Amino acid sequence: MTDFIKLQGIFEEGYGIIAKKVMRDKALNVIAKSIYSYICSYSGKGNDAFPSQKLICSDLDISKDTLVKYTNQLKEKGYITVRQEKEKGKFARNVYTINIVPCMVSSDTVKTDTETIGYGEMDTNNNTSLNNNNNINNNNKKIDTINQSSLDNERVEFRKNFREYINIVSKSTGLDIFRIENVIQPSLFKDIEIKEVIEKIKESDFLQGLKEEKPKIGNFTTKNMLNRILIDSYKNTIKKQDEKNKNWGRVL
Q1: What is d(CA 133, CA 249) in angstroms, rounded to the nearest whole number?
Q2: pTM over 0.85, yes/no
Q3: DSSP secondary-structure letter at 61?
Q4: By CB neighbour count within 10 A (0-12 exposed, 13-18 middle, 19+ buried), where does 175 fall?
Q5: CA gyration radius, the chain
Q6: Among candidates 252, 251, 195, which has minimal Cα distance to 226?
Q7: Phi-psi sector, 111: left (phi>0), alpha (psi -120 to 50), beta
Q8: How far apart are the C-alpha atoms of 234 and 158, rounded to whole Å?
Q9: Distance CA 135, CA 72 (A)
Q10: CA dist 59 to 21, 67, 242, Å?
Q11: pLDDT single digits (tens) 55-96
Q12: Hey, which residues does 82 pair with through a beta bridge?
């Protein structure tokens, strides 16, 4: 005889665990948080959740366009990964994977791997185009391997620089790292070179928290502020003043 556990009430149809980090992400839209919570509610059945787009839209009372828009936001920030599965050459389902470690993706990937295709509809790639693509992929396999290796190295370097940036902000503002991580997301540096920002911060006593007036967290959390850092708005001016004093002394 096999024993088993039976759930009743609200847990009867399944349950999941929701990451507080995602819920506290102020850059994430409330609809995106709802979609994330919905997907997590399916994770109690395994590593992957398989709710259909139609079911998600019905349960959350949103349109397909809204679902795609805010699912893309979750994907761009690396909270979930979505891939399409086919059966006999036809689109069958989207597989939503909840990432324990956020895995950022490019904007091109975000736009292409989640489409509003109904169950059983033909994918836009027919057999001929698939065969052509396979030939191209075989010819470029070595190049792809090199590109993937370069991409992996870039990701490792970015994670290293991002961790250094978090530590610098924590030290200069006096805030704990956990709070900093909830405010500053990797997507902040989508179009900005993080290494260059770090070097500019090291040229500023104010941004390093070495002056009596300490910087606020807001000095580091928006692209507008990062651009101000990059144009040397906070760079030390003591050397320039000393140079002016020397020139003034020569005149006298």
Answers
A1: 73
A2: no
A3: T
A4: middle
A5: 25
A6: 195
A7: alpha
A8: 24
A9: 30
A10: 24, 12, 67
A11: 899 999 999 999 999 999 999 888 888 888 888 888 777 777
A12: 96
